[in-house]
Amino acid sequence: MGEEEHLSNSPNPDTEITENPSQQEYSWPAIRFDVPPQRTSHFSRQFRTASNPNNFLKGVKWSPDGSCFLTSSEDNTLRSFALPASANEYVNGFSIAADADSYAASLVMNEGESVYDFCWYPYMSASDPITCVFASTARDHPIHLWDASSGQLRCTYRAYDAMDEITAAFSIAFNPSGTKIFAGYNKLVRIFDLHRPGRDFEQHSTLQGNKEGQTGIMSAMAFSPTHNGMLAIGSYSKTTAIYREDNMELLYVLHGHEGGITHVQFSKDGNYLYTGGRKDPYIFCWDIRKSVDVVYKLYRSSEHTNQRILFDIEPLGRHLCTGGQDGFVHIYDLQTGQWVSSFQAALDTVNGFSFHPFLPMATSSSGHRRFLAPDDGNDELHLSGDENCASVWSFSVASMVENDVEIDADDHNNSQNLLQNP
Known about the structure:
mainly beta, Methylamine Dehydrogenase, Chain H, four-stranded antiparallel β-sheet, 3 helices, 30 strands, 5% helix, WD repeat, WD40_rpt, WD40_repeat_dom_sf, WD40/YVTN_repeat-like_dom_sf
């Protein structure tokens, strides 16, 4: 496929610079975290094959328009699951869904090598096929831009090392305007123009001339959601740094984690930054307006795993949810830093959690790498359906007033109506 065709197929941010008006007018429901969520969909069987019976998930992210979510797993595969028009049957409990999936993935995309990171185009909308794309990066591969409606590869963004061999990005993120892809490498950040696939890029060292700055592999990145030009990058050197998006000027470096940084995320107002590390039991909250001290720490069970554990902040920006090795999702109040509640999401490490962008729903992923004894001739560990799985959760919402009648979201039928007719 020629480069001109790639360009014509790439999304045009100029035509999708604003959000869907219906989403702007939509009032996000206040989720009730004191009521355990219902599990509405469950997926495990399709993640296991004869060639890889111990395959496990590594993360999950909901699309910006909420129409589908994307999973990454150890079999080097990305899977897209479309949200069904109706999901009336709850699958609570950890036995009834052991041998059956709610439905099959709508798209399956194989990367060939281990997937390091993936992210959605920020203005993705199923109603506009041109914008239905996401990016991924895998070992020994360039950055791939995938078509989320067909599963086809749109184009690639390639970086080369000093030996003129392709070098893979360890983390990627679209800038808020959707015009560039920022990619993290070893002591480097490369910036690709979305409309110019190929090997053209800007390159910025994370080390200053006096050798100060950020060293190591740039392992996680996130932009401030308020379009203030702030970019946070985590490194396996246990540091997180704040940069200016326009010129990659280093503003300051945050220290304190016990392990390499695996996830960074800004608060909805852009004033706070949340960082999590490998084999580190705490998520740190930083006030980026005065970055000297940690505001508070949020505990999660992750002291004994090298796995990347992704957390997420609900659309209203008041609570953060994180998984851990204990199989539970823990919910924290971001105003106080206090634990609110928890619920069991799996019988394994919950390594991913992602809120729906505007409905009171979320999805989780679980699993971890298992090692068989050399003398164990059985290659299968006979995992249950609640290990190495993905689930969709439906939360109760605070009461709403509709036609002068108060609707209690604890009521099963009414909460389901709210989901289907927001």
